[in-house]
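Worked example 2:
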Amino acid sequence: MSKTIVVKYRTEKSHCQCCDQKLPKPKISEDKEFEFSIERTKQWVDWKEIAEFDEDLGDIVNDYVYQTISFFATSSYDGLIIESSEYDKVKKFILEEIVA
């Protein structure tokens, strides 16, 4: 069975989907979850090469997590809220399961 990691996130709606007017108070969702598989994560970039540069690794992990969840799990009207601890969790997963 493939190893996976679950990232918790929330969405924020700040505009009406019907008329595109700004909402008086943005609506923040309850926690949601998105599962990343080791196979799919391996395909995104050469993590072993990127891991040589810790600062770049952090930026690329953050971009990977944000872009993947944004594309697969939200609408164009949703903002995405991901805690830094969730990004750190994915970085650790990549270092331990892919780079090691």
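Strands lie at 4-15, 22-28, 32-37, 78-81. The two ends are 19 Å apart (CA to CA).
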